[in-house]
C-alpha cells in the first residue's frame, strides 16, 4: 500500500514543484526609465531595477537625445550604454569557457576539427 502511495504521490509532487516557478521579470523599456525619472525615483533605484531585470540596451543617438530631453540623468544613461558591452563580454566569456586550450568542455558532441 505504501509503495503505491509513494509511486503516485512522488510524480504529483514533482509536477507541483515544477509549476511553482516564477516567470522572469520583464525588461525595463526606455519609457519605463523616463516614467521612473519623472516620478522622482533616485538614480540608484533605477539602476538597481535595470540590473535586477538583466535588461540590455543598444541605444542610438536618437534614444540618448530622447532620454536627455526627458530629464534622465547622465549616470543612468551611462549605465544604460554600458549594458550592451557588458552583455557581449559575458556572452564571449560563456563561449570561451566551453572551448579552452583545444579541449571542448561544453555539451558533449564531436567538434568539426575532430573529423
Task: Please explain how this structure is put together.
The protein has 115 residues and is mainly alpha-helical. It has a domain of 73 residues. The protein is 63% helix and 3% strand. Strands 1-2 form a two-stranded antiparallel ribbon. A hairpin with a 2-residue loop joins strand 1 and strand 2. Helix 3 runs parallel beside helix 5. The relative contact order is 0.09. The mean pLDDT is 81.
Task: Summarize the model shown.
The protein has 115 residues and is mainly α. It is 63% helix and 3% strand. The chain has a two-stranded antiparallel ribbon.
Task: Kindly report the oligomeric state of this protein.
Answer: single chain
The overall pLDDT, averaged over residues, is 81
Number of helices: 5
Termini separation: 55 Å
Beta strands, count: 2
Estimated share of beta-strand residues: under 5%
Keywords:
two-stranded antiparallel ribbon; 5 helices; 2 strands
What is the topological layout?
Elements: H1 2-19, H2 30-38, H3 43-53, H4 61-69, H5 74-98, E1 99-100, E2 103-104
Helix pairs in contact: 3-5
